[in-house]
Specification:
Order of helices and strands: HEHHEEEEEH
Structural class: alpha+beta
Strand content: 25-35%
Largest sheet: 6 strands, antiparallel
Number of strands: 6
Distance between the termini: 89 Å
Number of helices: 4
Radius of gyration: 24 Å
Helix content: 25-40%
Amino acid sequence: MPRRFTPSLLRLAAAGLIGLSAAGCVIGEEFRHGYIIDDAAVAQVRPGASAEQVLQLLGTPTTVSTVGNKSWYYISQNTQRTVMFLGERPRDQRVLAVYFNAGFKVERVALYGEQDGRVFDFISRTTPTSGGEQAFLGQLMRGLTKFEPFSNAR
């Protein structure tokens, strides 16, 4: 005569199987991409410092400006993925900008991020107004999907 399982044992086995299946799919991973900003190193970069000193403190920049003023940009992004095999979504994006004068000495340092959907300077605690700098950083933060190169053409 076959042995019958009790309903409570079957429920316990089903709950365990569902729990193990869910645990294998939900991961909650966090990823860091790009330059990892070291606040202590950023604090040591002062106006008047040479480009060589900046390279020693911060390392090689992620990108440099090719038009207009001489600027170096260190870009970082933290993303999160809650379920295995699904896409990552950005949690935090920051751009450390080091601006140089004509003599290639540090003019100022700014740390930009997004706060309430707007580009925000975390060092001076100000939001930039319209100008060439905001256009570049805005495009950098938003990506190329909203870039309209002929919006000012008449």
